[in-house]
Task: inverse folding
């Protein structure tokens, strides 16, 4: 570089570098910070980042499936989405992250409790909390949401205990997001018509949501799966960009986990959260089914809850039964 | 030759710097334009966050109530009301937290413009479009500006042909608060907010 060009280049670089440094960040991590984000920074940089302490994780798809796709199609989309994250190349080795499909489950409740848990992927029509009164505000999920990821975690450390992905299975309309969904071809999803909305690619949606499932926030990079905007016709979110790869490799660097690791959720595996062993419905407010005492919602101020610190011995049997029920499918994990 | 080389270096530096500061932005949510936010909002207020309190429902879910002191009623607030309660999903109680990507967070003391649906006497309202329904007011060099809260949301939008397309949302860049409120009022007068105004 010439002696005259160098100072100019440094000056130009410095001018652009004066743009707030937070804009430089690429992927973000979800953190325990509950205060509103201030300024233009794309990432919340305070609080403890979310993480799975034992990143050998199971997931289950609710057996009632979706009105838009067969259970086999859903299973294919969801499995491939998890494998996309699991099979990332972190410099010759995969991340220390293993996903084990279990199930199918019977659980549309995004809950975390002492009696067994499942990281569930459920399709909801109507789009609401099945445990709440339909006339109650607590019933409704955001009507304009296609999917939400609900994470249970330690209040201060960011350690994740449970993550559930809920998909809005209603027909999309002007006042409601939702289906149809499909496994679109690699060339993209077909457009719809004025009266008939085109499908969204389920795999693209789930791949993005799994990023949150493992604690990754949004990215600055437009081609990243974790970028905050996308187009329906696109299936590009199925494929991780380098920024997504950096995120998963940074958070879960290669380690010792393999496909035979113990993927039992904290509190034991409970694939069915809605009926008991006799087929009777499990009440949503069944005492002891939730951390803490269950409490109530009157007045807005309610009971404090504690994470299940110790797994009760009574659940050990359930865990063993659950393990036996887990259907481990062969994984396409790369060496 | 030297000049050409210098030019390349300069252009390269600019491009390199631009790459480093390239712009960007959880839950997958339909992007709403401002007129849609207005249309779907039963109540719109400018106010200050007084406090937030998390509660647990019998089914174990967490919710949080945010109390907002009303500074300006833009739509739908009964005359004798000085505060509104906004409910969001999730929250933290003790050492356990339920986190719902896309739900807005509020800081005590901050000023916000909130587009809400539902709610009424003794009942909480919900922000429209999750975090999209919350605009944060900041004072920069003596000027009050407003920015949209989009934390944790992947925004998508249906086109007229039924497909999805990119959307900039209701407030792609920060605006002066007074100009933004004028736009909202214009939309209300223009009928975007229905016929109850």
Result:
């Amino acid at each position: 570089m010439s002696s005259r060009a160098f100072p100019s280049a440094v000056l130009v670089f410095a001018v652009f570098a004066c743009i707030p440094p937070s804009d430089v960040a690429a992927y973000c991590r979800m953190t325990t910070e509950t205060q509103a984000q201030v300024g233009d920074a794309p990432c919340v940089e305070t609080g403890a980042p979310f993480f799975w302490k034992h990143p050998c994780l199971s997931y289950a798809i609710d057996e009632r499936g979706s009105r838009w796709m067969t259970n086999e199609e859903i299973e294919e989309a969801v499995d491939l989405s998890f494998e996309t994250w699991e099979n990332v190349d972190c410099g010759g080795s995969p991340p220390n992250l293993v996903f084990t499909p279990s199930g199918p489950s019977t659980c549309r409740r995004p809950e975390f409790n002492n009696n067994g848990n499942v990281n569930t992927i459920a399709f909801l029509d109507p789009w609401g909390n099945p445990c709440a009164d339909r006339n109650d505000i607590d019933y409704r999920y955001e009507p304009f949401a296609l999917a939400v990821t609900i994470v249970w975690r330690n209040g201060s450390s960011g350690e994740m205990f449970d993550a559930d992905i809920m998909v809005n299975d209603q027909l999309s309309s002007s006042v409601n997001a939702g289906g149809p969904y499909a496994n679109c071809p690699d060339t993209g999803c077909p457009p719809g018509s004025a009266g008939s909305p085109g499908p969204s690619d389920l795999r693209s949606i789930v791949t993005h949501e799994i990023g949150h499932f493992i604690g990754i926030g949004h990215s600055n990079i437009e081609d990243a799966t974790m970028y905050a905007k996308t187009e329906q016709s696109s299936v590009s979110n199925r494929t991780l960009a380098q920024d997504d790869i950096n995120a998963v490799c940074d958070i879960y660097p290669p380690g010792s986990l393999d496909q035979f690791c113990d993927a039992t959720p904290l509190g034991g595996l409970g694939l069915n959260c809605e009926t008991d062993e006799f087929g009777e419905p499990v009440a949503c407010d069944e005492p002891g089914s939730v951390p803490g005492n269950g409490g109530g919602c009157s007045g807005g101020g309610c009971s404090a809850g504690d994470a299940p610190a110790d797994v009760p011995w009574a659940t050990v049997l359930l865990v063993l039964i659950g393990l036996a029920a887990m259907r481990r499918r062969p994984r396409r994990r790369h060496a | 030759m030297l000049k050409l080389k210098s030019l390349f270096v300069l252009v390269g530096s600019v491009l390199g710097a631009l790459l480093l500061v390239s712009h960007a932005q959880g839950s997958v949510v339909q992007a709403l334009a401002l007129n849609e936010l207005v249309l779907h909002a039963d109540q719109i207020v400018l106010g200050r966050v007084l406090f937030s309190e998390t509660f647990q429902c019998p089914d174990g879910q967490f919710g949080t109530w945010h109390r907002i002191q009303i500074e300006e009623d833009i739509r739908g607030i009964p005359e004798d009301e000085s505060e509104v309660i906004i409910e969001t999903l999730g929250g933290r109680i003790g050492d356990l937290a339920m986190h719902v990507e896309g739900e807005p967070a509020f800081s005590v003391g901050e000023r916000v413009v909130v587009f809400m649906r539902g709610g009424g006497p003794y009942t909480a309202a919900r922000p429209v479009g999750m975090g999209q329904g919350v605009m944060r007011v900041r004072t920069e060099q003596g000027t009050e500006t407003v920015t949209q809260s989009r934390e944790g949301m992947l925004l998508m939008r249906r086109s007229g042909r039924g497909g999805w397309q990119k959307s900039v949302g209701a407030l792609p860049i920060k605006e002066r608060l007074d100009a933004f409120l004028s736009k909202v009022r214009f939309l209300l007068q223009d009928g975007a907010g229905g016929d109850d105004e």
